[in-house]
């Protein structure tokens, strides 16, 4: 199935694009008159007397990184960070063929997703929903209900994805104790480099990308990079196909011997034809359905599209005393288009009729301005060297979603079981916008954190953040305001080096998390509060090229949203209503091993488990797998086969369930049993510049639910898939 991406009816601001383009030109002109030496080298960090270790993973051929700063804002090795941290490197992204956000996070330790419909995915870690992404360290709150493409971003523009599991309120402010996910974009390289790939796969998949980096001046003080990606594919679901376009440009300029300015512009467009929800799990007589994997609750005219432009400016200055100052700003502008038919209830086993029908059309816009000011560096106290960092952040997020109602008599929805035919017409829509969701959210805060060297093997990390949070909302005509001020988030961590390989650590932080969940009257639930504790042991083998960690943790929360069975938000028949829970507690452990075993052998392996219960000792958040085991490895053969790399992996997830799922005549419990998905890959280097690869996903064609019980519906996971690609590098 082929289709063409239609131009947006609400283009991204051309004024801001023109201004940023002008900034690129002025940067090049100003930088040519300054500095004497190039600084476009891979980022590195001084790790307390150890060798300089790069954070950038591109070109490292590794599944780990030398340092991360996502946890507390100070660059530290994985072993020195007193929390569970992981990284999905550029090499792993390419080896596994991870093309978008969902695939990257599904490969990461302890993270899983639940599908709500064809486009909206909800990610979780340690039993809680991940509600905040970061891009180059700048926070980007996720709106799970109005998804502006956050789960469909193309992987081509990222160097790595850093993940900190557990509570990360020190840097993110309000947030759940699940994980902080930091997408780190590619930067210009010190020398000319170009690469590109083209691939095909099952369901008429076509994918390609081009990546070019080049110095713009002879001395290399100014360099630019451009990445473009294209993706198009049908799916195993009838009348459902996806397409995306991505364009990313970045310029890095040395404005002085110690000053670097980086500016970038990112454009992403995602479209889904045939957008829809899951299929019914019950017939009208109460029996379970058993449809094929092509079953869909959609129409051919269903559509979901997002288009966004993100401008980013990052200014860094290194003082002579080794202190580093940073000022970063990001502007996001996005458009949202959705129209589809939602059918609820249960079809008659013989006629396929009897389901309710809602014809829905939404359009909207979202803008977000992020500011981030930081200062960090060393200081001397009592004859020892320590580190200190300060930061101030501001997020201004404006969301407007309006609905358009169908005119006149809506079309007949006919027989649900006839999903393979185009038998449902699109209604005529009103031209006037009806009231929808208009939400303006402002968050600002400041933090301070220090890493104290108490003794050669002992380091203490102390920090605190003060946050303010404001929400002004017009929710389908109901005006609401929420104000949370001077919320303090403390942080403490202790790391003890047993020797040059092993370290023990413990950490604590409090929790403050504003929720998007709504009560039966449509009001947003009060924020979640609580505490998070963690302890563990870490190891850095082979000079840090292979990292291992074992962590145990406990999280206690008050006010966590719990679904009210069979109750929807008033006036919103398709939106689940929630109540504030009491005494939620999660206990668990993480085990991980990642990096290079040898120069030819890479490995990423993890095992995670948690138990989540409320004050009544009842299991909560059971729609997320309690236990996950993930393995992926590659090995480059030797001898006459030294141009061949083979690999594969497996992901095992324990069973999930939903209680009190509505069915004809009452409620029931539903469960998806545990399952394993196996993948294989191979890559052959034809020469120094050209290679071919093959990937097989879901090797044994496991049939499983990617979502079960959400509004009494289900969604099958993707069957076996074969993908072939060719890559050229210069």
Main traits of this protein?
TonB-dependent siderophore receptor; five-stranded mixed sheet; 4 helices; disordered N terminus; mainly beta
The share of residues in helices is: under 10%
Beta strand count: 41
Beta-strand share of residues: over 45%
Number of helices: 4
Termini Cα gap: 34 Å
Oligomer type: single chain
Largest sheet composition: 22 strands, antiparallel, barrel
Q: What ranges have pLDDT less than 50 throughout 5 or more consecutive residues?
A: 1-52
Shape: globular
Q: SS-based structural class?
A: mainly beta
**What's the Cα radius of gyration?**
25 Å
Query: Could you tell me the mean pLDDT?
Result: 88
Provide an overview of this structure:
By secondary structure, this protein is mainly beta. Helix content is 5%, strand content 57%. It is built from 4 helices and 41 strands. The strands form 8 sheets. The protein has a 22-stranded antiparallel barrel. The chain has a 5-stranded mixed β-sheet with strand order 3-9-10-7-8. It is globular. The two termini are 34 Å apart. Its main location: membrane. Residues 255-699 form the TonB-dependent receptor-like beta-barrel domain. A motif (TonB C-terminal box) lies at residues 713-730. This is TonB-dependent siderophore receptor.
């Amino acid at each position: 199935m082929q289709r063409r991406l239609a131009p947006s009816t609400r283009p991204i601001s051309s004024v801001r694009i023109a201004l940023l383009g002008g900034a690129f030109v002025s940067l090049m002109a100003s930088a040519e008159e300054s500095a004497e030496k190039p600084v476009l080298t891979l980022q590195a960090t001084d790790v307390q007397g150890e060798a300089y270790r790069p954070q950038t993973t591109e070109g490292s051929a590794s599944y780990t990184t030398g340092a991360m700063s996502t946890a507390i804002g100070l660059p530290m090795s994985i072993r020195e960070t007193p929390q569970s941290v992981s990284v999905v490197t550029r090499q792993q992204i390419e080896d596994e063929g991870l093309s978008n956000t969902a695939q990257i996070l599904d490969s990461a330790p302890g993270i899983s997703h639940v599908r709500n419909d064809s486009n909206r995915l909800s990610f979780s870690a340690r039993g809680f929903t991940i509600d905040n992404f970061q891009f180059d360290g700048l926070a980007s709150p996720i709106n799970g209900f109005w998804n502006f493409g956050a789960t469909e971003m193309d992987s081509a523009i990222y160097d790595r994805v850093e993940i900190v599991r557990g509570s990360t309120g020190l840097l993110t402010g309000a947030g759940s104790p699940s994980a902080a996910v930091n997408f780190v974009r590619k930067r210009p390289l010190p020398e000319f480099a170009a690469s590109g790939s083209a691939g095909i796969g099952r369901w008429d998949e076509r994918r390609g990308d081009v990546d070019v980096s080049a110095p713009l001046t002879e001395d290399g003080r100014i360099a630019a990079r451009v990445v473009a990606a294209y993706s198009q594919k049908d799916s195993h679901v009838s009348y459902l196909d996806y397409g995306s376009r991505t364009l990313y440009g970045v310029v890095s300029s040395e404005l002085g011997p110690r000053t670097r300015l980086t500016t970038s512009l990112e454009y992403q467009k995602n479209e889904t034809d045939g957008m829809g929800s899951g299929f019914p799990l019950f017939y009208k007589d109460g029996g379970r359905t058993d449809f094929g994997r092509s079953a869909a609750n959609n129409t051919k005219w269903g559509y979901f599209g997002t288009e966004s432009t993100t401008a980013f400016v990052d200014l860094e200055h290194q003082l002579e005393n080794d202190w580093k100052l940073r000022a970063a700003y990001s502007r996001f502008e996005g458009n949202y288009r959705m129209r589809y038919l939602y059918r609820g209830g249960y079809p008659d086993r013989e006629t396929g009729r009897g389901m309710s029908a809602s014809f829905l059309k939404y359009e909207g816009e979202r803008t977000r301005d992020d500011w981030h000011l930081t200062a960090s560096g060393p200081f001397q106290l009592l004859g020892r060297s320590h580190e200190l960092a300060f930061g101030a952040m501001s997020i201004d997020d404006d969301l407007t979603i309006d609905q358009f109602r169908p005119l006149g008599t809506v079309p007949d929805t006919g027989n649900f079981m006839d999903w393979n035919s185009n038998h449902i017409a699109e209604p005529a829509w009103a031209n006037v916008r009806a009231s929808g969701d208009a939400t303006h959210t402002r968050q600002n805060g400041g933090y301070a954190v220090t890493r104290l060297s108490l003794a050669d093997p002992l380091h203490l990390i102390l920090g605190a953040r003060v946050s303010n949070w404001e929400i002004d909302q017009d929710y389908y005509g109901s005006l609401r305001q929420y104000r949370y001020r001077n919320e303090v988030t403390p942080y403490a961590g202790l790391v003890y080096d047993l020797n040059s390989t092993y370290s023990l650590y413990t950490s604590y932080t409090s929790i403050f998390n504003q929720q998007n969940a709504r009560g039966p009257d449509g009001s947003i639930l009060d924020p979640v509060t609580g505490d998070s504790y963690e302890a563990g042991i870490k190891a850095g083998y082979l000079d840090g090229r292979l990292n291992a960690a074992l962590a145990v943790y406990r999280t206690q929360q008050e006010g966590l949203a719990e679904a009210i069975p069979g109750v929807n938000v008033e006036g919103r028949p398709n939106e689940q209503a929630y109540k504030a829970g009491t005494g939620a507690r999660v206990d668990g452990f993480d085990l991980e091993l990642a990096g290079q075993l040898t120069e030819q052998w890479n490995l990423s392996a993890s095992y995670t488990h948690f138990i989540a219960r409320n004050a009544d000792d009842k299991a909560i958040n059971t729609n997320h797998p309690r236990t996950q085991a993930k393995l992926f490895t590659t090995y480059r053969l030797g001898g006459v086969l030294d141009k061949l790399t083979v690999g594969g992996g497996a992901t095992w997830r324990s069973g999930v369930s939903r209680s009190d799922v509505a069915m004809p005549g009452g409620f029931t419990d539903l469960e998806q049993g545990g399952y394993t998905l196996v993948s294989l890959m191979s890559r052959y280097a034809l020469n120094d510049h050209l290679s071919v690869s093959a990937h097989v996903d879901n090797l044994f064609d496991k049939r499983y639910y990617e979502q079960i019980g959400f509004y009494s519906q289900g969604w099958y996971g993707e069957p076996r898939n074969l993908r072939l690609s060719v890559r050229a590098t210069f």
